[in-house]
Amino acid sequence: MRAPQWVLRVWPFVPIIGALLFTTLLLVLFGASPLESFGAIIEGAFGTQSKVLSVVAFWIPLFLASTGLLLTFKAGLWNIGIEGQIILGSIGASWVALNLEAPSAVLITLEIMAAMAGGALWALLVGLLKTRGGVHEIFGGLALNNLAILLTLFLISGPWQPPEGGSFRGTPPFQDAALLPRFAESRFSPLSLLLTVVAFTLVAIALRNTFWGLKLKALGRNARSAFLLGVSSEREALFAMMFCGALAGLGGAVRVLSWFDSLRQSISGNIGYLALLVVMLSLFRLFWVPLISFFFSAVLIGSITLQLRTQLHSSLGGILTGVLVLFVLLFGDSKRLGLFSDGGDADVRE
Amino acid sequence: MRVEIKDIRKYFGPVKANDGINFVLEPGRVYGLLGENGAGKSTLMKILSGFQPADSGEMLFDGKMKHFDFPADALKEGIGMLYQEPLDLPPFKVLENYQLGRGDGVFLNQKEAAAELRSLGKRYEFEIDLDEFIEDLSVGERQQLELIRLLAGGAEVLILDEPTTGISAGQKDLLFDSMRKLAHEEGKTLILVSHKLAEVQELCDHVFVVRSGKIVGQKSIPCPTDELVELMFGQVPERSQRPTFPMGELALEIRDLSIATYRLDMGNLNLSIRKGEIFGLAGLEGSGQDLLVKACTGLLKPEKGKILLDGEDISSHSYHQIQQAGISYIAAGRLEEGLVAGLSLTEHMVMAAQEHSFFIDWEGTEKTTWERIEKYQVVGEPNSLIDQLSGGNQQRFLFAMLNSPLKLILMEQPTRGLDILSVNWIWDQLYKRREEGTAIMFISADLDEIIERSDRVAAFSGGVMSRIVDADKTSVDELGHLIGGQQ
After folding, report:
1. CATH number of B3-233
2. pTM tops 0.90, yes or no
3. C-beta atoms of B335 and A349 within 8 A
4. Of the candidates B42, B341, B351, which has its C-beta nearest A214's C-beta?
5. How far is the C-alpha of B29 from the C-alpha of B475, rounded, in Å?
6. ipTM, 2 decimals?
7. What number is the average pLDDT over the span A195-221?
């Protein structure tokens, strides 16, 4: 049986509706009004201009990290270490902001370069651990994530502590010249959006139209054959890691230079792990990534209002996104379900 | 068990893999299912063994209609299939692998399983070391284990899909002996799926010939081979002749080469191949010929000695440097070593091209891909994923990806699993390459192929290379002795 065209076309919405139903059920079980709760989330995300700007400001680093992950996933690498790469980006930018003095434009350029270098270096370490040390990138990445967190704690309670004494909360606020110019008293920096769009465009072109992108694809599918076809596996894997790390680092810079104004204890806000979910939810399809990361931002920022308005904890947003990812992975691929497997594609076999 | 197949149909898009197949199999006999690559044999057997469902049609076993969703369902009903690739777990020990397939309940009964495995092994004269790891066994030994597992599972009908691919002559004889015993003494129904006429003649009692998804005829064996060939192809194909070719100067020279791996030490290898020469390497699997080829590709670093390509020592070059220098390598595993499942034909062409620009010229490459598809008669389109092609077409595409000119082509089992027409065709393409001065060195398990296609031949036995013989002055018998280690 071949599924009718319209079924295939609306199929992507099935897991979304499923996740909404599941969350609604949870709300009902806890005695909350689903309409009021979802209403609160929507209002919390889009109710006022400043709320919309918050969503956008939160979206940018998430979008950057997800864009980077498109490269590593394409190459078959599970870059869990992206969380640490964001943190190292924050640290790199913070170092410049705290230690150098220059006109704003120069300072910001240097901050961004330091952040990208920091993220790329942290990613390179994960890559080298894998290619040279035989440590799987998931384990190397997790270890380096923890090291990055410890490094932040050391910096904010030690060398970079505020004059009033270390409190594990953060560094003193950066000089004004070091911060990204922000839009209308919000946390949103138009410059960071511009950089993000450029980065996404470059990655999209790299994946679709360059030989490098094709090499990553081959590497991700079958490293042995790719090698025999002329791909130097180690070099390409390390490059993919470093590009991803650089974009994550840029995201880290946006976190310290526009979302906050200093290096804080949990600077990445789990954006790295969220980005992994975004890319998995997109089923690795390029143009879904900005939309999904925006949706995540809206739900998570909206959930803050939810908590203020109702008795529910703001983690409801996290539950909704988490369930959504699970549902998509379970039901997203109509072919894998075996529902319409026969005759769907012209399979020319013996 | 009596097996009756009625009007089985299976379409893959526009391809009619099985187009109304009917036959009846009686117990106690060995049946052959003969057909060229892509004729629909494997599809039919996968349906029979529960690996995939038919679009329509009926299967009756001892008169009862059955429908299978999984291979395990089929085995419960007594249908067992031995796949081309054994379905075992390489990191397991023999006994563990057997226990897994046996389904022992919660606790494993080591002793009982071991005793069972030993007695079955004895009955069919298979030598089995229970503590050996599967990955250390040869393909032939793994087949024997699979066969035992199926028999222990109660198989009454046994399907063997191209079982002689990649096993030694001795193992083949053993396998055929046990197949005869199973049919003629124990009353089981055996089906040999093959495209090799000699095998069918040697083993089977009765043969069905499949062409383009239909049974086009059946014969009782023995019968004249020409009749089978005509049924298979619809015509009697000419066996292609190796044209004599004046050889050029030295292409590849191997001087005092030593190779050491954990399983084999080879020393003192000397060999020279001239431009346009075809050099065949014979020997049982793992006798060292594969190591020699790997050393020439740069995948294996020799201990000492020289490999000279056009006079330049390449023994310490990397695989990619050697590729650049004009050597191409076609490995034995298609989708493991050479092709990337999930990539389209066009994407493969981009990867294989000699020169790469930063941006991919998709349009231009698609055009080249069409040209190669037509030239190499690949059934597929530039946008087809390589894993959607049949094995024979994948093999053709591997050859389609070769650049030219090349100085040397190294091949492992270049025509394994292909029918006569495809084999002839591939060799004709290779013969043409000699005009560009390309030398060819290849490994084959098929001695006839080696003698027929090579100019000169060397045999390997336990890491030792034999004297080099001229192909037109040697015989299968002489090569057999050389492979056995007699000089």
Report:
1. 3.40.50.300
2. no
3. no
4. B351
5. 34
6. 0.82
7. 95
